[in-house]
Design goal:
The complex is a heterodimer.
Chain A lengths: L37 H9 L5 H34 L3 H50 L2 H6 L2 H43 L1 H8 L1 H39 L1 H6 L3 H53 L5 H42 L21 E8 L8 E8 L4 E5 L6 H8 L7 E6 L2 E2 L5 H6 L1 E4 L10 H6 L7 H11 L2 H6 L17 H15 L3 E5 L7 H15 L3 E5 L3 H5 L3 E6 L2 E6 L1 H6 L4 H15 L8
Parallel strand pairs in A: 3-8, 3-9, 6-7, 7-8
Antiparallel strand pairs in A: 1-2, 1-4, 4-5, 9-10
Helix pairs in contact in A: 1-10, 2-3, 2-5, 2-10, 3-5, 5-6, 5-10, 6-9, 7-9, 7-10, 9-10, 14-16, 16-17
Chain B lengths: L1 H10 L3 H38 L3 H57 L2 H6 L2 H43 L1 H8 L2 H38 L1 H6 L3 H53 L5 H43 L19 E9 L5 E10 L4 E5 L6 H6 L9 E6 L2 E2 L5 H5 L2 E4 L10 H5 L8 H10 L3 H6 L17 H14 L4 E5 L7 H15 L3 E5 L11 E6 L2 E6 L1 H7 L2 H18 L3
Parallel strand pairs in B: 3-8, 3-9, 6-7, 7-8
Antiparallel strand pairs in B: 1-2, 1-4, 4-5, 9-10
Helix pairs in contact in B: 2-3, 2-5, 2-10, 3-5, 5-6, 5-10, 6-9, 7-9, 7-10, 9-10, 14-16, 16-17
The chains are: A alpha/beta, B alpha/beta.
């Protein structure tokens, strides 16, 4: 067991003290509880609408099941009163058969009810998931910057579950359970009024205990889950970074951190146990109190002949069936709160209108030549913060344009504007003389190939990944494309060739090789305009040579925009634009720009070249 | 069996708690058995009297008795609640504490396992052993033990009680149990793989979403959104099918088992009812008997789950012990603590053979003076990294000796040895922590000034200052992502803060652009001052300034000397140099 160590007094915040992760609070589910919001609930229940027949069926079946369930204590009462006490063997046998029959029927009904209910719940959840997923696909890039990748998973898989519980599980529960409670109440009323009235005393106690205590139970359970996640995160990091830990000889410190996480988890779990079982004890105690009431009052009633023994037994049987639904309905308040928080997050996404949409009357682009013109383009991600300031540029079909400049100068932004990932704030971008906003988004992007700095491949074979560029490409065309960019050689050297799964080969495929695959992918789409975003900066020299070859093949016969750091990529471009502070400060061919005295390009170039020279490669030979 | 005894050896420390828990369990079983008999007495002693012959005296006496019963019931209940709580608490304590011990032991062990072990082991495997498998053990220690003990004890006690009450009814009730047992096992056999399938499908959906978000730019670039939606649709309805299939099974078997239980009850009620009519049994007795029978059904239905818990725990324990059996480095530890280190390194006839039989290095002889800078170059896979990995004893020489300051590295205490060696490896690992915490990793809570100084030397200070929270910026998933070159410079700064006598740089510049390469090169030059430095490189340009350059090919040192000496030899080094010069000359052409 652990010593209860007192936490050190919190030091006054020292702004100069360096921070570690312990200073950051990652408790990001503070908003997990939320009170009822009719707008959100209405939105959530809209998902139920297409399935209202299924919903009706589930409710009806559930009612039948509950009715069958309720019939049993009644039959038992008859069995005791009419069969055993009145010593009627025939009635006893008949009632036994009746109970059996009711159970057979309830077996069948509960089978149907479970199926109907699960089918309803899963259908609703699926339509929510698919709506969300489709909606996310429509968003522009700005949207993805706002949410961390993990949050989509928790929304599509987690929050949807919470809402499903509210609108199917919850709604059906409320309808059926409150119905059940009322029917039970009626039956009990018929058996004995006095007893029933006394029992009503207990109801508010159960409701209060459930609503109040369950809240704590779930709170502490959630905390335990979070502590557990923290422990696993600690563990994963320590295993992944074991070489660093060992080479700095920090095993002990790392074990200490792990122990602390384990101790935290232990304490929370013990607390969860105490809170959880005290809820159970309180509820049982209240029910016991009810039983006592029934016992004592019931005895009086029996003695006065107003209650039979069988009726008394039946009454005892109904107590549980009366309290259970009340408890469930009370608990439903908690379900609603969790679901509301989930609904808020989900509708936060669903109500997010995609920023980039087809303009009314937009026409598809067909057979583009590839002339591109930027006219006084102005753009800022946020208001008053212009990243692109008045850029104009004219590119003829088939030309290659290189964008050069330091990080943050606006090169990537310019490229994103071209394929309309963002809309210009002022000015216009024209393609073959048409404003790109008058072209349908799909056809615009289809005519534009983009190769990114980090070549992203989807899980699947190399063949599938290349074909991603054009889904109807034949195997032969895929191989042809790979051959064309110079990827065929290494692909066919792999044991499984084009069928190699890029995931299993993740370590086997180098970044350069992945990049070549992404070239082939772009090539097979055969776009009129090709955009490369620093596609060659993250590879070593050997692969770069390979890539250069692929690139030169890719560049032919189309308009190309290249953002690059490596000089060798830039120098062969038809037009070089030096971008600085959101403007094009110099433009021209390599020769022209080098001829400029005090030119920015010349300066950039000589810095890089000087570094190469200083490192001895050029000087050592002579 | 051996595994089981080993499993429980973890919990041995907590036997006292365990005994307390067992005691509570025993009390609970007793109370549960006692409970229906109170009920029986209430019915037979009071209520039947009240129902049949209500004379005022009898009524009064009976009501008084009833009150006593009520008080008794409340007392028994409170005692039961107390026992239940104590039992839960103690057993939870045992299971949580044992698991805490096992987890820490595993963690500690994993950290002490050698590099060779970690080379072969999958990280995911090690993690699932320390989480899922440990959780399976907790299931056994906690709910598992309780269920087994309570259910077995309960079943026994109930059986005895039933037989003493009415053996014929007992036989009648029990006749259903074997059928119920078979059904229960069949059900658990069918349903478990179905749940696994559902879990897998959920996993597939999750990774589909992850892939979608990660590749969103590619998807948008190729306008493949509809295709993605179609795929996701298929996955989602696949989940629907699987959930529904499992519901079909559970919706059939659940009520089926209930039905069998009811069948037993009805049989007893019918035959028992006849007994009551013939005066062989009281009504209270019959009702109590039925209650007991109902209590027997619970344990039978729990059976397959208890078996599953035990099976899972044994399988998990085997996997855990497999890790614990692997030899930690500790066994190979030397005795002499390394207090000071001058930084002389010598390889004497060193041969390194990996355990799969491949010879990584052969007959290496190399002497390095303190403060020298050594460049190491050679084709990929020639053994460069293996060579430097032997200095901090990540691997041990199979033959020959590696000496530091004239003493075999094997004679030093590993921890103290490694504290004098700084390593910047090819792939930089940073922790999901602040920049400050990452840099001061060698010794926690270093003064910020020292850290800044090192960051400046490593050419990363400027970049850090450009981040919104500067040195307090969180790295990793929840924070800022650094580029490859920035990570490299972070690693250099981190190594510098250890102030090592020996610095090892493993190919730190191959994966970065020329601008970053220059920054890193400068950082390295700063770092190498007054230390023995080993520098592995792919490009000649990175090591021309070294005091000595070693060229390795196929596990042997084929050439060594300064840049100039090696060029004159016109061997492998010269060839590498020329081929790289050719590449770069393309760039030279632009100048003209």
């Amino acid at each position: 067991m652990f010593h209860k160590r007192k936490r050190p007094e919190k030091l006054p915040p020292d702004p100069n003290r360096p921070k570690t992760r312990l200073d950051y609070d990652f408790n990001d589910d503070r908003h997990l509880r939320r009170s009822f919001d009719s707008e959100l609930a209405k939105g959530a229940f809209m998902f139920l609408k297409p399935y209202r027949l299924k919903f009706l069926l589930a409710v009806v079946l559930w009612i039948i099941c509950s009715a069958l369930n309720l019939a049993q204590p009644w039959l038992s009462k008859l069995l005791i009163d009419e069969g055993i006490i009145k010593m009627n063997v025939r009635v006893l046998g008949l009632l036994c058969a009746a109970i059996l029959g009711v159970h057979l029927l309830s077996w069948l009904m509960s089978y149907c009810q479970s199926l109907a209910f699960t089918s309803l719940g899963e259908s609703v959840a699926n339509s929510m998931r698919i709506t969300l997923f489709s909606h996310i696909q429509k968003q522009s890039l700005g949207f993805f910057k706002q949410y961390p990748a993990g949050s989509f998973i928790s929304r599509i898989m987690g929050d949807v579950g919470a809402i499903r519980r509210m609108i199917t599980g919850g709604a059906v529960h409320v309808i059926v359970d409150s119905g059940t409670a009322m029917v039970v109440f009626f039956i009990m009323w018929r058996i004995n009024r006095v007893l029933t009235l006394w029992l009503l005393l207990v109801v508010p106690m159960i409701v209060a205990a459930t609503v109040l205590l369950r809240k704590y139970v779930r709170g502490v359970n959630r905390e335990a889950r979070r502590k557990n996640a923290a422990l696993i995160a600690n563990l994963s990091e320590s295993v992944a970074g074991v070489r660093v830990i060992k080479s700095f000889g920090r095993e002990k410190a790392s074990l200490l951190g792990f122990r602390r996480a384990g101790r935290d988890l232990f304490r929370t779990q013990m607390r969860a146990l105490v809170i959880g079982s005290s809820y159970g004890v309180v509820v049982e105690l209240i029910q016991l109190f009810g039983m006592m009431l029934v016992l004592i009052i019931g005895a009086r009633e029996i003695s006065q002949g107003r209650l039979t023994l069988g009726g008394f037994m039946a009454f005892l049987g109904y107590i549980g069936r009366f309290f259970d639904p009340i408890r469930k309905v009370s608990n439903y308040f908690n379900t609603i709160q969790v679901a509301m928080a989930g609904a808020e997050r989900i509708f936060g996404i669903l109500n997010y209108e995609p920023e980039i949409q087809d303009a009314p009357g937009a026409l598809p682009a067909e057979d583009l030549k590839g002339d591109v013109a930027l006219r006084n383009v102005v753009f800022g991600y946020e208001k008053d913060q212009e990243v692109i300031k008045d850029v104009s540029l004219e590119v003829k079909a088939g030309q290659t344009v290189a964008l050069v400049g330091s990080t943050g100068a606006g090169k990537t932004t310019l490229i994103n504007l071209l394929s309309r990932q963002y809309d210009v704030g002022g000015g216009s971008i024209e393609l073959d003389g048409r404003d790109i906003r008058s072209i349908t988004l799909d056809s615009l992007r289809r005519s534009m190939g983009v190769v990114l700095q980090d070549p992203f491949l989807f899980p699947g074979s190399i063949m599938e990944n290349i074909r991603y560029g054009r889904l109807d490409a034949s195997d032969a065309e895929v191989v042809e494309a790979a051959r064309f960019v110079g990827a065929h050689e290494f692909i066919s050297a792999l044991p499984k060739g084009y069928d190699t799964d890029v995931r299993e080969g993740a370590s086997r495929l180098s970044t350069g090789q992945k990049q070549l695959i992404s070239f082939a992918r772009a090539l097979i789409a055969d776009p009129a305009i090709l955009v490369l975003d620093e596609a060659t900066s993250s590879v070593d020299t050997k692969t770069e040579k390979l890539i250069q070859f692929g690139l030169s093949r890719l560049f032919a016969n189309r308009t190309c925009f290249v953002v690059a750091h490596r000089l060798s990529t830039i120098a062969s471009a038809d037009l070089i634009c030096v971008v600085e502070g959101g403007r094009i400060v110099e433009r021209g061919s390599h020769k022209e720009l080098m001829a400029l005295e005090n030119g920015r390009y010349r300066e950039l170039y000589s810095i890089q070249f000087e570094k190469l020279r200083k490192s001895g490669v050029f000087s050592a030979g002579d | 069996m051996r595994t089981i005894s080993r499993i429980f050896s973890f919990a041995k420390k907590y036997w006292l708690l365990f005994a307390a828990s067992l005691l509570c369990m025993g009390l609970l079983v007793a109370i549960n058995i006692y409970w229906p008999s109170i009920q029986q007495r209430v019915i037979d002693d009071c209520l039947t009297d009240l129902a049949s012959s209500p004379t005022p005296d009898i009524i009064k006496a009976n009501l008084k008795e009833l009150q006593n019963f009520a008080i008794l019931l409340i007392g028994v209940f409170l005692f039961k609640a107390f026992c239940q709580f104590m039992q839960n608490y103690t057993i939870e304590m045992v299971s949580q504490l044992s698991v805490y011990d096992i987890r820490n032991k595993l963690f500690d062990h994993i950290q002490r396992l050698s590099f060779t072990y970690h080379d072969d082991a999958e990280a995911g495997q090690l993690i699932s052993r320390s989480t899922e498998d440990v959780e399976a053990l907790r299931q056994l220690f906690g709910p598992g033990v309780v269920n087994i003990v309570v259910n077995c004890g309960m079943a026994m006690a109930i059986l005895v009680k039933c037989i003493t009450m009415d053996w014929l009814l007992t036989l009648l009730g029990l006749s259903i149990m074997p059928i119920l047992g078979v059904v229960v096992f069949r059900y658990s056999h069918i349903i478990r793989p179905m749940y696994v399938k559902i879990q897998n499908q959920v996993g597939d959906m999750t990774s589909a979403i992850t892939q979608n978000i990660m590749g969103i730019r590619v998807i948008k670039a190729f306008v493949r959104e509809d295709d993605q939606i179609k795929k996701f649709n298929k996955l989602a309805w696949g989940l629907y099918d699987r959930v529904l299939a499992s519901t079909k099974v559970s919706a059939f078997y659940g009520p089926f088992m209930d039905f069998l239980a009811v069948l037993a009850t009805i049989l007893v009620l019918w035959v028992g009812g006849l007994h009551v009519i013939h005066g062989k049994l009281t009504i209270g007795g019959l009702i109590a008997f039925n209650t007991y029978l109902g209590m027997l059904i619970g344990p039978v239905r729990m059976m397959p789950f208890m078996v599953a818990v035990i099976q899972n725990a044994i399988a998990s324990a085997d996997r855990i012990f497999e890790v614990l059996m692997a030899h930690p480095e500790r066994l190979l530890d030397g005795k002499t603590p390394m207090k000071r280190c001058r930084g002389e390194v010598e390889f004497k006839n060193v041969t390194l053979t990996y355990h799969d039989g491949t010879v990584a290095l052969k007959d290496i002889n190399l002497k390095v003076e303190a403060g020298q800078m050594i460049g190491i170059i050679g084709p990929t896979g020639c053994g460069k990294t293996s060579l430097i990995n032997m200095i901090p004893r990540f691997y041990d020489a199979s033959k020959g000796q590696v000496l530091i300051d004239g003493q075999d590295v094997k004679s030093y205490v590993i921890d103290t040895l490694r504290r004098h060696i700084g390593i910047v490896s090819q792939e930089t690992f940073l922790f999901a922590d602040t920049i400050y915490a990452n840099l001061s990793y060698p010794r926690s809570m270093m003064p910020i000034e020292t850290v800044v100084e090192a960051a400046k030397a490593a050419n990363i200070h400027e970049h850090i200052m450009s981040l919104p929270e500067k040195y307090n910026t969180m790295l990793g998933e929840r924070g800022v992502n650094l580029s490859g070159g920035q990570k490299q410079r972070m690693a250099i700064a981190r190594a510098l803060l250890m102030d090592p006598a020996i610095l090892i740089l493993d190919d730190s510049t191959s994966a970065v652009d020329t601008h970053t390469e220059a920054l890193i090169q400068e950082a390295i030059n700063n770092a190498a001052k007054s230390r023995t430095t080993f520098m592995i490189a792919q490009r000649v340009s990175a090591i021309t300034g070294c005091d000595k350059i070693i060229v390795i090919d196929k596990g042997r040192i084929v050439e060594q000397g300064t840049h100039r000496e090696l060029l004159e030899k016109e061997g492998l080094y010269h060839r590498i140099y020329n081929s790289q010069l050719l590449e770069d000359s393309q760039k030279e052409n632009f100048v003209e």
